[in-house]
Write a sequence for this structure.
């Protein structure tokens, strides 16, 4: 890795990834950043904990011929690197996973035939049991240095965070209630009747009913009780 080059461009690279607006743009910036660190093939994607079949790529710089061969041979079901990544909290080199079964050995042999000899994988565990994996394959035969591992991990984390932002729907904003609607709901939440609420707010009963009905409609509820409960859960009123 060109140390001075990466050190001088690291923050600019991370900022460029942070400012991407599409997954394709993120992938392009990510692969550019990886090229600053070394000569790697790279694939990033998600693997579901309870759904066998291997990685579901979101971006890859591996040769198409290798990707087709890997998927066609169903190596994702037996890949020892992927299997270990599902339970590992940190990145690790491929050399930590010795092939045991015949198909695992075939995978390693085929990989070497394609010119890919060593690698480093970074698992990032999500809250839903899925794992976002970033798998780097190196053309050189030498091990991935500790400094490279730190740099690759930093890029992988930034890639995951931005990918999550781009693909996760924003939390819906709670409906906006007027001050009067919130006041009426707050008194109802404290056990007051329509008459009592009207008396405390110095309003007539029909006006109180009007505000409560509006709040019920905005919160898409069927009665006062569910309206109050939803307003509390959304933080619109406190009791």
């Amino acid at each position: 890795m060109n140390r001075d080059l990466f050190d001088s461009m690291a923050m600019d690279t991370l900022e460029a990834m942070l400012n991407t607006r599409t997954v394709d743009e993120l992938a392009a910036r990510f692969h550019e950043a990886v090229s600053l660190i070394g000569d790697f093939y790279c694939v990033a994607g998600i693997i579901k904990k309870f759904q066998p079949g291997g990685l579901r790529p979101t971006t890859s710089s591996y040769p198409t011929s290798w990707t087709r061969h890997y998927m066609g041979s169903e190596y994702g079901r037996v890949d020892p690197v992927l299997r270990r990544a599902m339970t590992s909290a940190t990145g690790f080199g491929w050399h930590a996973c010795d092939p045991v079964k015949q198909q695992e050995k075939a995978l390693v042999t085929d990989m070497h035939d394609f010119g890919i000899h060593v690698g480093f994988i970074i698992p990032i565990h999500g809250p839903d049991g899925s794992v976002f994996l970033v798998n780097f394959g190196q053309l050189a035969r030498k091990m991935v240095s500790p400094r490279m591992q730190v740099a690759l991990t930093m890029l992988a984390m930034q890639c995951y965070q931005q990918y999550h932002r781009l693909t996760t729907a924003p939390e819906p904003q709670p409906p906006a209630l007027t001050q009067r609607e919130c006041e009426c709901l707050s008194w109802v939440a404290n056990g007051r009747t329509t008459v009592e609420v009207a008396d405390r707010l110095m309003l007539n009963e029909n006006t109180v009913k009007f505000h409560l009905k509006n709040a019920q409609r905005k919160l898409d509820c069927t009665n006062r009780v569910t309206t109050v409960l939803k307003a509390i859960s959304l933080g619109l009123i406190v009791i």
The two ends are 59 Å apart (CA to CA).
